[in-house]
């Protein structure tokens, strides 16, 4: 099993196997993990996409900040979004470049805490993710909780894992337009994977 997993990972890394491998588009090439009820098309990257169900394809940028990564909270944070019913379409661990951070926080550049914020965000790796689903921007802000962990309710991510505004563990886009801008800033299009959740009809009436 371990050997199988290793060879699968090696194939993915070497590009021999891909979730969005270009295929011919005939019916027989639709993989088994696609739900039988969805109508498939293949986009210009050769990725399968399901027919769009209103509002379900909203996307947001979530990032586990350096304190969250250092404290090994990545798994628990990912679990919350998976369990809520959202779909992971992009994920990477990276040391954020200063130009990305300054664009990301451009509206805060006059705040007194801005220099410390950039230092904090570049103090170690972050895990950037794109999550997709109905109302994901607003719902994920509710899951994340108040910017100031002292005001964040228990049960929210900040309310459960942090105590001070200078180390609040996680970022979540605050609007649909902001999310689109942030996703473009942090991810290349080709890093995002269109795929069908096999349990889609358990979360949505399709
Ligand atoms: P948000 O992350 O909840 O959207 P924003 O107001 O957009 O909150 O602020 C971005 C980030 O800047 C916060 O998550 C936090 O890390 C940092 N920040 C905001 N206000 C303060 C502050 O008063 N002191 C220190 N850091 C702050
Ligand atoms: Mg914000």
Describe the structure.
By secondary structure, the chain is an alpha+beta fold. It contains nine helices and six strands; from the N terminus they run αβββααβααβααβαα. The longest helix is centred in the N-terminal third of the chain and has 12 residues. The structure holds inosine-5'-diphosphate and magnesium ion. Inosine-5'-diphosphate binds next to loops. Its EC number is 2.7.4.6.
What characteristics describe this protein?
206 residues; alpha+beta; 4-stranded antiparallel sheet; two-stranded antiparallel ribbon; 35% helix; binds inosine-5'-diphosphate; binds magnesium ion
Q: Please identify the oligomeric state.
A: single chain
Record field, number of beta strands: 6
Task: Tell the overall outline.
Answer: globular
How large is the radius of gyration? 18 Å
By secondary-structure content and strand pairing, the structural class works out as alpha+beta
Report the span from N to C terminus. Answer: 35 Å
Uncertain stretches of 5 or more adjacent residues: 1-5, 7-40, 42-51
The percent range for helix content is 25-40%
Tell me, rounded to a whole number, the average pLDDT.
Answer: 82
Q: Proportion of β residues?
A: 5-15%
Characterize the main sheet: 4 strands, antiparallel
Number of helical stretches of at least 4 residues? 9
């Amino acid at each position: 099993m371990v050997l199988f997993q290793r060879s699968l990972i090696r194939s993915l890394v070497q590009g021999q196997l891909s979730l969005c491998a270009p295929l011919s588009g005939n019916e027989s090439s639709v993989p088994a993990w696609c739900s039988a009820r969805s109508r498939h098309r293949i986009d210009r990257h050769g990725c399968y996409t399901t027919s769009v169900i209103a509002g379900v394809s909203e996307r947001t940028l979530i990032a586990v900040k350096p304190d969250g990564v250092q404290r090994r909270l990545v798994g628990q944070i990912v679990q919350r979004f998976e369990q809520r019913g959202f779909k992971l379409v992009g994920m990477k661990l990276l040391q954020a470049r200063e130009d990305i951070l300054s664009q990301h926080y451009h509206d805060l550049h006059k705040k007194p805490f801005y220099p410390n914020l950039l230092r904090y965000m570049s103090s170690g790796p972050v895990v950037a993710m794109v999550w997709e689903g109905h109302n994901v921007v607003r719902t994920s802000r509710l899951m994340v909780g108040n910017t100031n962990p002292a005001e964040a309710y228990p049960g929210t991510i900040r309310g459960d894992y942090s105590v001070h505004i200078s180390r609040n563990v996680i970022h979540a886009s605050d609007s649909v337009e902001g999310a689109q801008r942030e996703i473009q800033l942090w991810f290349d299009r080709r890093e995002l994977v269109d795929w069908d959740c096999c349990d889609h009809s358990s979360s949505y009436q399709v």
